[in-house]
Amino acid sequence: MSLPEDVVEKYHRAGKIVREIREEMKHFVKEGMPIIEICEKVEEFINKKDGVPAFPCNVSIDEIAAHYTSPPGDERVVPSNSLVKVDIGAHINGYIADSAVTVCFSPEHEKLAKAAEEALRVAIKTIQGGISTSKLGSAIQRIIKAYGCKPVSNLTGHQIGRYLIHTGKSVPNVPHLIGSKIKVGDVVAIEPFVTVAKAAGRVNNGNEKTIFRFVKRKSVDNLYGRRLLDYIQRNFKTLPFAERWFKGFMPQEHYLSAFQKLLRIKCLTAYPVFIEASKKPVAQAEHTVLVGKNGCEVLT
Ligand code: MN
Ligand code: MN
Questions:
Q1: Which residues in the chain show pLDDT less than 50?
Q2: Domains along the sequence of the chain with CATH
Q3: Distance separating alpha carbons of residues 62 and 193, to the nearest angstrom
């Protein structure tokens, strides 16, 4: 089923915003730069263009494959010789575009970023209504291996829904046994993750958590907890958010205990950072596409 015209138009607007700031990041990101500066630059751009960040800008470096954003007051900087994945999402009325680029300061690991880009290009050429997700995974893996690299087997692309960043089908970076098929009208993020041949080729959950999401409404026996939960539901709905986004919302001493409480009673969930199991560097490339009968349209 193809999407209504007004929905497609919103995807186009979200896609354009993400594309513009992603391209700017290729030149903006520098060794030694505070990570928080990158996150804030991306999110400010999205807001300035009348979009809304669909999730906090992820800046995941080297063996951190995904899900790192700056916590409030972050003092970390981009290390020299690093691989920096900048993953950006924006939405218009809940219609999300999701795209990532790897900025590479390590000549040694340049081919990881090239392999991710090429695997993404081939997957985009291959995707169409009716294709199995496993076939896409095979195509992605084949390219990555041809570069002498390894796909990260437990990170996948994903179908996108309204106000839902991950929903429905996954698009794996290796062949798999689940027999799901892509349909015409699906909006899908394709995102090959690539590491070195001798790496484990999978990620584990790290201890650090910098990204959060609303799960369910519960009664909260604390005024500040209730106010914070209202704020989260109203502003982020079912989309991920960062603690940076609460700046100045309530006094710090009330905020800290209210936020911990909401996590403890599972009104909120936290996304752990994903770390390559053998601590090897990871590159990523990502586009969001709208699937058609004989191909796709790249939205980002
Ligand atoms: Mn992404
Ligand atoms: Mn994605």
A1: none
A2: 5-205+274-298 (3.90.230.10), 207-273 (1.10.10.10)
A3: 12
